[in-house]
Amino acid sequence: MVDGPNRIPLSEACHLLHRSDRTVRSWLARGELSGMRQGKAWLVDRPSLDALCVRLGYVPTGSAADPKRQPLEVGQAPPVPSPTPGVVPEPKAVRPESSRPADDAPRPPRPERRRRAARPVTTLAAWETLVPIISAVLKGVEPSGATTAGDLVARVRRHAAEALALVGAGFHSYHHTDKAARYLQARDALSGCAATLRILAEIGGGHPVGLRDLADRVEVEAIPSVGSLVRTMERKREDGRAPGGAADAGQARGEGDR
Questions:
Q1: For residue 95, what is the DSSP state?
Q2: How many structural domains does the chain have?
Q3: Is residue 153 included in any domain, yes or no?
Q4: Per-residue confidence (pLDDT) for residue 103, from 0 to 100
Q5: For residue 107, what are the contacts with CB-CB under 8 A and spacing of at least 6?
Q6: Which of these, 219, 221, 218, 226, lies nearest to 181 by C-alpha position?
Q7: CATH value at residue 158
Q8: In this structure, is residue 46 part of a structural domain?
């Protein structure tokens, strides 16, 4: 027997909620729906059920005994909610018709992307500084038949050619991190070239004065020019800017630190 008009049996609550017996029991166990036990059966508080229906999006207007209310079939959608007296539903946001583009309306053309013109490596200020110095090193250090001097000469020539190649590879790299790595390697190669030239001058592997002059040019002109490239890339990294291609405008002819 139902205890009072404000309590309904579990089966009627399942019908009004359009949920299974297991789901309603879980709501009762979690406290989302109020009710009381009567032996093994549940009696559900009708005010609590109505409040839950509102949260679910509809309000039941009748009970299971109402002849106008038919049980839902399998796969049938819940009924349309009935308005609750005193409750004004919130209007749904509708986008104005004028803001909805028609399917056949012409779309505005996309702005054309400007591409930076490609530049050769010869536009790099450091390249102009390096080429005559590296050429002088390769011409001024000739291969020698002596074992020690021959090894040092080969090392000088290798360092010089490697430095020039690394500067070119850095110029054609896309990201500033890759550029900085290549330029750092080129600076290390030039440092090795200058040091080996001075060692070669001390042991008499050629004209000592000419070798020292070449070492001075490498240290005073070549290494600082590559160092300026490294500083430019470090500034770009700090500013969070990436170069837009292989050509670095900051080191084009007449710009940047020399």
A1: -
A2: 2
A3: yes
A4: 57
A5: 101
A6: 226
A7: 1.20.1440.60
A8: yes
**Quick one: CA dihedral 188, 194, 195, 197, positive or negative?**
positive
Alpha-carbon distances, residue 172 vs 180, 226, 244, 254 (angstroms)? 12, 15, 11, 19
- Taking only the tens place, the pLDDT of each residue in 7-32 is 888 888 888 888 888 988 888 888 88
Helix or strand (DSSP H, E) at 37: strand 35-38
User: 140 and 42 in one domain?
Assistant: no
Q: Identify the residue whose tokens are 């399917």.
A: 103
| Amino acid at residue number 223 | I
* Residue 209: domain span: 121-251
Query: pLDDT at position 246, please?
Result: 40
This prediction has a pTM of: 0.49
Q: For residue 171, which of 159, 158, 180, 161 has the smallest C-alpha distance?
A: 180
Residue 82 lies in a domain: no
Helical ranges in the chain per DSSP H: 10-17, 21-30, 46-56, 125-140, 147-172, 176-202, 208-217, 223-239
Question: Among the listed ranges 2-6, 137-141, 153-157, which one has the minimum average pLDDT value?
Answer: 2-6
Residue 107 lies in a domain: no
For 47-58, write each residue's pLDDT tens digit.
888 888 777 776
Question: Kind of pairing, strands 7-9 and 35-38?
Answer: unpaired
Residue type, 13: A
Q: From residue 47, how far is each of 1, 80, 178 by CA, in Å?
A: 19, 20, 70
Let me know whether 63 and 125 are in one domain: no
